[in-house]
Please model this.
Amino acid sequence: MQTVATLLQATARILVEEGAERLTTNHLARKSGFSIGTIYQYFPNREAIVLALIERQRSKVRERIALVMQDRTGSVEERLRRIVRTLHDAFNLHRNADQRLTFALLRLAIAHGLPTPTDAIAEAIVAVWRDAQDAEHRPLNASETFVLTRSVIEVLRHATLHGSPLLETVEFEDAILRLILGFLREEARPAGPDA
Model:
């Protein structure tokens, strides 16, 4: 619905340009051009608006990863690079956001049990790896999947929270890809008891 989309866009602009303390329903009404009554027609409070914004951003990442996964052409490395580039681009959008805001949004998302993009990333990486399995590949177990995907996300999250200029570089993307490939390669991973 266009009204909700407009409200969420205005919310994102306020959060990024002015900070979380400026996000009130009165200010959002002025910025979006809607009345407070209209805002409350769609959202019961400010927290609900922010949660909807978080979920919208995460949905976009999941949709982009799904599109990447539909293209099964290329080597394992090329397919994984497309996943990394999608994540890299998504995190780079937020690298100049206020650090306090980012932490607050993360805490809010966790408290409300919103699904993390990590789940979609894990599925994508594992799917690419599973598709490529042959004599050289074995499937990832639950522990390996958890460690690999959280490592990738935390590297990107840390760079975002600190506004790192690395987020704009191909070298950073290459380093994340090497992290994934190094982890996935059989010779880099001893087989554990749950393999």
